[in-house]
């Protein structure tokens, strides 16, 4: 994968914002993890949203290419299994793999289908899967030298749970 900024048409303001708020802090963290100032920490999560076909996935690949990180494109449907407890184990394994392959970018496409608003009609499996995912994500956020970034993409931002939106500041 060698996606460059020039492969993405238009979006100059968005590209500049992503470079200054995501790429440069990540490059600094990946090369100076031992001397990182907490005020210079890159975000642990970024939400890319827009209409279908606007280049969210291409932008995620360009970010990974620019910071020389492993790009893990997580297929949400793989996490959902019919066996009790397997979905939670798979979600935990995704974060473990991300740590082992660090620096890495974990890309969640169509995040709204997986981490939508929680309510009482959710099944036990869906609720516990969301809880495990959020707990693992919190582990990334509390570790200042973690070299894992969650990139999420959606075209329905309004359907994403507010707990997830708080973890995706950009």
Automatic annotation (TrEMBL):
The keyword Nucleotide-binding applies. One of its GO terms (cellular component) is mitochondrial outer membrane. GO terms for biological process: extraction of mislocalized protein from mitochondrial outer membrane. Residues 42-170 form the AAA+ ATPase domain. Its main location: mitochondrion. It is found in: Mitochondrion. Pfam families: AAA. InterPro entries: AAA+_ATPase, ATPase_AAA_core, ATPase_AAA_CS, Mito_OM_Translocase_MSP1, P-loop_NTPase. The keyword NADP does not apply. GO terms for molecular function: ATP binding; ATP hydrolysis activity. This is AAA+ ATPase domain-containing protein. It comes from Petrolisthes cinctipes (Flat porcelain crab).
């Amino acid at each position: 994968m060698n996606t460059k900024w020039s492969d993405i048409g238009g979006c100059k303001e968005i590209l500049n914002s992503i470079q200054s708020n995501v790429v440069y802090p990540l490059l600094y963290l990946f090369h100076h993890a031992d001397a990182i100032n907490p005020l210079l920490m890159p975000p642990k999560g970024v939400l890319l949203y827009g209409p279908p076909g606007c280049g969210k996935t291409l932008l995620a690949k360009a970010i990974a290419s620019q910071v020389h990180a492993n790009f893990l494109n997580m297929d949400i449907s793989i996490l959902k299994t019919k066996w009790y407890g397997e979905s939670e184990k798979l979600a935990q394994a995704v974060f473990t793999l991300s740590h082992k392959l660090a620096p890495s970018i974990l890309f969640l496409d169509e995040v709204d289908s997986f981490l939508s608003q929680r309510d009482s009609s959710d099944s036990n499996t869906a609720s516990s899967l969301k809880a495990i995912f959020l707990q693992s994500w919190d582990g990334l956020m509390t570790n200042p030298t973690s070299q894992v970034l969650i990139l999420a993409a959606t075209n329905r931002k309004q359907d994403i749970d507010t707990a997830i939106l708080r973890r995706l500041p950009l």
